[in-house]
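Customer ticket, subject: "Can you confirm the structure for Transcription elongation factor GreA?"

Message body: Hello, I'm evaluating your service for our small team and ran a test protein. I'd like someone to confirm that this is what the system normally returns, since I don't have a reference to compare against.
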Amino acid sequence: MSDRVYLTRDGYNRLKDELHELLHVTRAEVLEKIAEARSHGDLSENAEYDAAREQQSQTEARIADLESKLSSATILDPKHIKTDKVYILTSVELLNLDDKKETLEYTLVSSEESDSDLGKISVRSPVGRALIGKAVGDKVTIIVPKGELHYEVKKIFVK
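Agent reply: Thanks for trying us out. I re-ran your input and got the following:
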């Protein structure tokens, strides 16, 4: 049985669109590549055939992964997210306790929707794990590969 996957409606739709593309476009393209490579004769030393088979394997694995995630997905409605503590889909403003001038803002999302460029971090990341369950005023020590980071939760909200 798969772990429950928590997604926004947009995140769910993105995964669904990717699955549709893989099933109806990519899969057919890969099968064409395999057929073309087969037509070149001896498969034992056919790098084109090997590459196409590898692409097929990766495509089928991604299809299986997406089907599993979508079948176990729970779509979260931001309107029903509490802001008394840091939960998935909450945004949090942090004050850097080592440099009182620096503030950071993150939105906690599932690993399927994380995008550090947009400030969306996974609840499974070191930062996400450290923040889950914290309330405004709580101090947080986050252990990252570069060492320890010290923050205070200043604000919790939903975008």
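A couple of notes from the result: Residues 9-38 form the longest helix (30 residues). The chain has three helices and seven strands. Feel free to reply with more questions.
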